UniProtKB/TrEMBL annotation:
Transmembrane helix is among the record's keywords: yes
Full protein name: histidine kinase
GO cellular component: plasma membrane
Cellular location(s): Cell membrane
Composition bias, Pro residues: 15-24
Coiled coil: none
Entry EC number(s): 2.7.13.3
Reaction(s) this enzyme catalyzes, per UniProt: ATP + protein L-histidine = ADP + protein N-phospho-L-histidine
Length: 476
């Protein structure tokens, strides 16, 4: 059957008689109940299990660019299908109306010839008198004295019929619609090609638009990550004003405002720390000198001890301020790691064990700053840990381990924070030791990793750059 016949077929079928209860086609009551229960069971949906075909799993796996392109293409495809169906139906009605009119015109001409000559002119038309191939509905209408037409679109060769009564006979005319069917098929093919082109253009436009949106969002995400890593001067929109008024531009402006506010607050905090340390340094120097002049005794020793603690705290605050300002510049040199660590451990005290002192792996580092890092880690392990402190040299790594309760989970998760020791079980402190160790390690291009040792204890590992390692983007 052709596309024309499938789209415009009109048949009236008599309703089939319902089977009698208890007859061969009538299901029993038990079968009906079983069927209803089965349908209800299939129609139910368990919680947490979406219906098959409705869960957009493939769409959820796509990125934002793909989702926008797919949704825009799907919307355009639906619109194209709807418009195509409307245009197809309108064109089909035009062809049908024109064919009916031509068939009626031929019927009138054939009737006139028949009335004049008494015979049917079937040279140019398929006209006949009392033809057996006339459709039954058309024959009945003509027998009732009506002139009417009939579209036969169900066969492989569609045609339009026209008939009218002449005396006791039925005069009929048949007009083939093969050419119209081919034109209609070509018209439908052009519609499908046009619709596919529109959908492809819509998908391409959606991909381009979504690509721009995706790039802007990725830029915003990358800038937010840079800000979270400490690069507080990172901005999405740059130094100039925002170039757009859409939602993405508003998001970028909001992130830039947040970063500027956060940068201002952190810089104010850093300036306050540096100012306090500088202001305390001079009176503490005088206090330290005065404490040395006190007469010998237990009270004098307590005063000197507290003064030394205040002086150490002030120096630590000044060092943190310099690290925050990023004004520290290392003096890098290639040194064998084993002997270098051996000297640092020897100066740290006799209660520190060393393993791997014979390792002569060359590393590029600043010896003074490395000693500051290891001294702080050893001091932290001695103060907060338990038992003997162990230092191990392996390759380009130096590990400091104690045998205490280990680092608290918050410290491992968030990293060291100034004036925060992490847990009461690790004792009291200012929390500046690990902060300085991390800061000085960053200056010399090293990394510090904290973890809990298997069994019991805490480990701090310092990873140093090898001698042949290329310098980082900042020259370290």
């Amino acid at each position: 059957m052709t596309a024309l016949g499938q789209a415009a077929r009109r048949r009236i079928r008599p309703p089939e008689p319902a089977p009698r209860p208890g007859g061969p086609g009538h299901p029993g009551l038990r079968q009906l109940r079983q069927r209803r229960l089965r349908h209800r069971h299939l129609g139910r949906r368990r919680p947490g299990h979406p219906r098959p075909g409705l869960h957009p799993l493939g769409l959820r796996r796509l990125r934002l660019r793909g989702k926008i392109a797919v949704l825009l293409a799907a919307g355009c495809a639906l619109v194209a299908v709807a418009i195509g169906l409307l245009v197809h139906q309108q064109r089909l009605e035009q062809v049908a109306d024109g064919s009916r009119a031509q068939a009626l015109a031929q019927l009138v001409r054939v009737r006139q010839v028949y009335e004049l000559t008494g015979r049917v002119d079937d040279v140019d038309t398929e006209a006949a008198l009392d033809s057996l191939s006339v459709p039954e509905p058309l024959r009945r209408a003509a027998a009732e004295g009506r002139r009417t037409t009939y579209l036969d679109l169900s066969s492989d060769h569609p045609a339009v019929w026209a008939a009218r009564p002449i005396g006791d006979h039925v005069l009929s005319v048949r007009k083939p619609l093969d050419e119209e069917a081919r034109e209609m098929a070509e018209f439908d093919r052009q519609l499908m090609i046009s619709g596919a082109g529109v959908v492809a253009l819509a998908a391409l436009g959606g991909a381009l638009l979504a690509g721009r949106l995706s790039r802007e969002l990725r830029t915003a995400a990358a800038t937010a990550r840079r800000i979270s890593q400490g690069e507080l001067d990172a901005r999405i929109g740059g130094p100039g004003p925002a170039g757009g008024r859409d939602e993405v531009a508003e998001l970028g402006a909001a992130v830039d405002t947040m970063a500027a506010t956060l940068q201002g607050r952190l810089e104010a905090e850093q300036r306050f720390t540096a100012d306090v340390a500088h202001e305390l340094r001079t009176p503490l120097t005088g206090l330290h000198t005065a404490a040395e002049l006190l007469p010998p005794g237990r009270p004098s020793e307590l005063v000197r001890d507290r003064v030394r603690a205040l002086c150490t705290l002030t120096e630590d605050l000044l060092e943190v301020a310099r690290l925050d300002a990023e004004v520290e510049r290392p003096q890098l040199d290639v040194r064998p790691l084993g002997p270098l660590v051996a000297g640092i451990v020897r100066r740290a005290g006799e209660d520190v064990g060393l393993t791997g002192a014979e390792a002569d792996t060359p590393v590029r580092t600043d010896a003074r700053r490395l000693e500051r890092v290891l001294a702080n880690l050893i001091g932290n392990a001695r103060r907060h840990g338990g038992g003997r402190v162990e230092v191990t040299v392996s390759g380009c790594a130096v590990t400091v381990r104690d045998h205490g309760d280990g680092f608290p989970e918050r410290l491992l998760r968030e990293g060291p924070r100034r004036f925060l020791t992490g847990a009461a079980e690790r004792g009291q402190g200012t929390g500046l030791g690990l902060t300085i160790a991390f800061g000085q390690a960053q200056v010399i291009g090293a990394r510090v990793r904290l973890r809990n040792a298997p069994g019991k204890g805490a480990e701090a590992e310092v990873l140093l750059p090898a001698a042949d390692a290329p310098p980082g983007p900042d020259g370290h």
